Structure prediction request, 161 residues.
Amino acid sequence: MSTEAEQDVLPLESSDHKLVAFPLKYIHQSGTLICAHKPKCPPSPVPFHVHDVKATWLETCIQWCRIHENDPKIDRRQRFLSRFEKTIYQEDIELFDKFRSKENLGDLINAAFLLDMPDLATALARYVARSVDGKPIKYISEWMGVPIRSGDEYADAIYGE
Prediction:
């Protein structure tokens, strides 16, 4: 017999074969997990396997959902109309600052898209845009961890090489 706590989570298996309990109260944030969860069926003894998303990123998605659990739900129209806003929560900045390398941010962005979490993807886009907006190319290169190629005509024009 399953306990109440087990019924309040959707068990997920990450791509690195770790079990992650995704709270059902956050399921509205993920189109993928909404499709995986069948509320009228008994809980599955087998966790839903999330291909290409490691446990670290699933847990980070849960942290982000926890930060935003009291936010009003946004419909597709509102999301479309607000897509170019630049505002970002300080809590999001603090969370995303932990993953500043290009690989980590890329993995988290991929997780947001694979889990169909458009509000998280938008927050990540705003974070990156805010971090590089108006900055010189050398700063952006260092911030993203992407070296500037020597012989690149744009880099040469900027650095006068």
Residues 118-132 form the longest helix (15 residues). The beta strands are 9-13, 19-23, 48-49. The chain is about 50% helix and 5% strand. The two ends are 70 Å apart (CA to CA).
